[in-house]
Every structure is written in structure tokens, then in C-alpha cells.
Amino acid sequence: MKKHLLSMAFALGALFLIPVTGNAQEKNFIDQPYLETNSRVDTLVVPDRIYLGIVLQESDSKGRTSVEKLEQKMAAELQKIGIDIKEQLMLADLSSNFKDYFLRSTDVQKSKAFTLVVYDALMAGKAIKALEGAGISNISFRGAEVSNLADLKVTMRSKAVRKAKEQARAMVEPLGQTVGKAIYISDLSTEYTPYQGGPRMMMEMAKSDSSEPIDVPFNKVNVQAMVNVKFMIQ
């Protein structure tokens, strides 16, 4: 019985000690002279991966060209302008190469969808012109992205922390004090604004009657980071 009572007393004592220890740690943090600052940095980046959708479809006519022949023409035209079709051209739906559309009871119209990735707007224009010249005009913009976005976010966080220290130094040096080590850092946000200019770019390319592709500039995407840092004041 005594043993049981001692165990209960020890457990209760531990419960009472936990908030005391926590309060002591909090007090130690608050009692230190510190400066708190927020900083934000951002940058504009041109997308370097542009995705175009291409749909090959048999025409509804007696002399229609098969999807297989259209695919061969597409591959030949893309290779002529320097596109590596093994690396840059892929089926849009890998689970099914063909989709069948039943027109009458006996007629089947086949189609096949692809995604083409290019690395700048000029090559996108060249691809569109080449495909249109081969009679392939069902082309759409599917998206654009920055390939090294993860690395860029890390770089932006580092810049935000350095800027926070510069801000802290600017505030304490007039007082004859110096910035000490960071005692708290919070990553508030690392934002990426998705690319929104694709439809406009496609419209500009489609309106051009020139035999040469036009280099329509892509809208840049915004990448930003924000941090909150507490520095000791010495």
C-alpha cells in the first residue's frame, strides 16, 4: 500500500513540475534582449518548360488520313526543327492510346493525344507553325513551369533570412548595439504564382500570318519567400 501511495505521489509531483519547467524556459526566452523582424523577398522568373497539347484525329471524309500517318508526319516535322521526340513528346493518356468515337453505326473515328514539352517561347512558336504546315492544327496550351522551382525556393528563403539580419542591424547599430545570434526563425511562406499567360501567347501565335514563328515573350512568374526572425541584442 505504501509503495502504491509513493508511486502516486511521484506521478503527481511530476505533473506539477512540467508547467513550472515550461514557464521557466519561456521566462528565460522573454528575459533575453531580442529584436524581432519580418522580411520578404521575391523574384520574377521566365518559365523554362512549356507544355503543348496535340490531338491527332482522322478527318470525317472519304480521303481521310489515318491517325498513324498523322503521327508519322508530326514526328517528322518536330524532328526537322530540332525536337527530341523521345524526350519531349509523350502520350497524353498512357492508359489508352486510342479513343473511339462512333459516328454512324459502322464508322469509327480515331484520335490520339500527345503532350509536347519545349523550353522557350520561340521553340513553341516553331512547333506550332511546323505542325500547322503539316495539317495538324488541334494544338492547345497545357501549362508552363519553372524546372528548378524547389532549388529557387531554398535560395529565396536564404535571401529572406539575410535581409532580416540586415534590417535588424540597421535598427540596433544607431543604439550602439550589435545583432547577436538568431534565437527563433519561422518560415512564413514561400509562394509561387502559377503561370497565367499561356492563352494570350497562343492567340498571338495563331494571329501571325508570317511563315516565320514569332517569339512572343512569356509572362514571368513570381516566386517569393517571407520569414520571421528573432535576434539577440548584444
UniProtKB/TrEMBL annotation:
The organism sits in which domain of life?
Answer: Bacteria
Does the keyword section mention Ion transport?
A: no
Cite a single GO BP annotation: DNA damage response
What start and end residues bound the annotated signal peptide?
1-24
Q: Which InterPro entries match?
A: 26kDa_periplasmic_antigen, SIMPL/DUF541
| Cross-referenced Pfam families | SIMPL
Give the UniProt keywords, A-Z. Signal
Q: Does the keyword Signal apply?
A: yes
What name does the UniProt record give this protein?
A: Secreted protein
